[in-house]
Amino acid sequence: MPYEQQIADMQERIRRWLRTSPSPTASGTLAGLDADILSLESALESLFHVEGRHGQEASNGFQQEAIFRTVLESMVEGVIVADMNGQFLVFNAAARAMLGQDETDSGPEGWSDQYGLFYPDGKTRFPPEELALTRAMQGQAMDDQEVVILAPERQEAIHVSGNARPLWAADGQQLGGVVVFHDITGFRRVDRALREARDRAEEASQAKSEFLANMSHEIRTPLTAVLGFADLLLDPKLNESDRLNYLQAIRRNGQHLLSLINDILDLSKLQADKIQIERATFSLHQLLHEVASIMQVRAYEKGLDFDVRYTTPMPREIDNDVMRIRQILLNLLGNAIKFTREGEVVLTCRCLDPGTESSRLELAVTDTGIGMHPDDIDRLFQPFNQANPATTREYGGTGLGLAICRSLADALGGDIRVDSSPGQGSTFILVLDQPIDDRAEMVESHMLHQSELEAEAEPFTSRDLSGRVLLAEDGHDNQVLVSTILQREGLKVDIAGDGEEAVDKALTAMNAETPYDLVLMDMQMPRLDGYGATAKLRRKGYSGPVVALTAHAMSGERERCLAAGCDDYLSKPIARTVLLTAVQSYLLRIRGGEPPPVEEAATTAGESGETDGEGRIYSSYSDDPDMADLVHQFVERLPIHVQDIRTAADIGELDRLRRLAHQLKGAAGGYGFQPVSRAAAKLETKVREADQASEVTEAVSQLVRVCRRVTHAGPE
């Protein structure tokens, strides 16, 4: 064989040797390196038959090559060397590991498909001509080229970053190219996590910024009203009617501010895990009725239908936190009414798997309102968020209510689920994992008549009541109703027509050492309302019991009354047995007796009085002989109330019209005429909003039509 051919053959054997992996038992070791060297020396001797100095030089050269190869194989960086034809001369172990396979003979045009090489997005195939090694073979240097490797045999993508350089001979001729690349997958994973964390932080910051903007608006609006009306009250020429109107506006806006603060405090307690769950046995049946009675009026004021449906029998009593369940239901129902312009709001209740370990209650609030896109639902339960920024602008609100509800549901061991479609309405389902014995007393229907309501409350047992009660109430009908009920039980009742008179009478009696045994304080009166009157009494050292009477049956009203200094609160319309039980409790307490336990005093009177479509309206007390005379007197006076309301409407005295509607709302409910109470409540709302005169006129006409159907005779 010619000498030149022998040299070429030797070069090819060296290249082949460089491409051959070390033996599995000696890879990367000195023993493996020595074996390779001895093998190469033997090959050299057989090929060239050299001796002496030339043989030693050849041996040293191959020893250096072996060291170089071992170094390449031990590197963590991938190293690939290719000649000008795209044939790989070096392809180390790190390169094989990262690419997921050995070298290929497909040539540069097939590298991208063969090894699954993509742009950093992981979706777009990397063009072969743009690869760093290809560019190096074209004489160009490349730095920091990022490639995503999606190897066919590997599920996880690998990100690598590489630098490439051309290879030149001493005479300036290009021999090929080399690329060195390393795995940056971990770095990209950390970088992605940091970006996601940053995005979440920015979203949270944006949400809080929007919340602060919304809260600023929510706070500044009523605060501006409070400060503005307070300035107006400084006018010495102000008449009594305007003064009363301004005071009521201040109180109303102050209550709104307090509700905002309560929401924020509730949320902060929940986030700090400071909310306490107080479980006790209570009547679920009665709670659902109370909530329905409160929200039904609000729904009717907007012209919406409202219903409560039991799709399965419901347990009469359960053991849970009644206050928190009420808070959740009032919020869900309030939202449903707020975001529904027409149609209905329905509270659907069912009990699932009673008597088993998976027993639970589902209380679903369904509306026909604006609905929302499924993608917006997750944001609903994040603090400071609403489904759409436009929602805040149109409907107001802070975006805290649902976040509080879900946190409370979680604290109760339950959850809130949502199903909604844009323009089709929404359903919010409160799910409570609730132990329910299969022998528990079950209720088939939600309907409660007055007799059932009184049975649900602690039964009243007369103990020959005696004592003095001060009734602070500006409505004549309520004065007659409450005083008559109490006087028939043997109590002496004095009446104050406003807050100032109530304070004077209570302090005078205290100073004369003949204090009243109990003060019943209406919270909305002229001159000085019940909140101010109670606070003034406490500042003057009055320590006797004061029980609030209020038509504001919304969540948090009891807390507001207690904050003013009241000992308890009763919600109008007041059931006779509830009123007497509460009075008896306080009379026994101040005399050292054992008072009967009193359920939460927010118990309302029964459902609306009997009515048949557009037929007659009867009082829910029509079968109570003790109430017959009082109901008859109210019906006899009703035309006078109606005429006063029509006169005030005709001459445009809106303040007086609103006050008369408010008085009739409480009085009619107290005497058992709920349809009249609801119609009066709707009129009061329309007058307060005073958006359009036509709406006020229509509300007056509707109230007049309802009142014409009232009769004191019982249904046959």
Automatic annotation (TrEMBL):
Which EC number(s) does UniProt give?
A: 2.7.13.3
- Which residues does the UniProt record annotate as the domain Histidine kinase? 214-436
Q: Which GO terms describe its molecular function?
A: ATP binding; phosphorelay sensor kinase activity
GO CC terms in record: plasma membrane
Enumerate the spans annotated as HPt domain: 623-716
Domain named PAS: which ranges? Answer: 64-140
Indicate where this protein resides in the cell.
Answer: Cell membrane
The membrane topology of this protein is: Multi-pass membrane protein
In this chain the Response regulatory domain maps to 468-587
Source taxon at top rank: Bacteria
Reaction catalysed by this chain?
Answer: ATP + protein L-histidine = ADP + protein N-phospho-L-histidine
Main subcellular localisation: membrane
Alphabetical list of Pfam families matching this protein = HATPase_c, HisKA, Hpt, PAS_4, Response_reg
The PTM Phosphohistidine maps to H662
Region (Disordered) residue ranges read: 593-614
* Keywords for the protein's UniProt record, in alphabetical order: ATP-binding, Cell cycle, Cell membrane, Coiled coil, Kinase, Membrane, Nucleotide-binding, Phosphoprotein, Transferase, Transmembrane, Transmembrane helix, Two-component regulatory system
Chain positions found as 4-aspartylphosphate: D522
Coiled coil, from the record:
187-214
Composition-biased stretches, type Low complexity, lie in 599-608
Name under which the protein is recorded:
histidine kinase
> What is the species listed in this Swiss-Prot or TrEMBL entry?
Halomonas stenophila
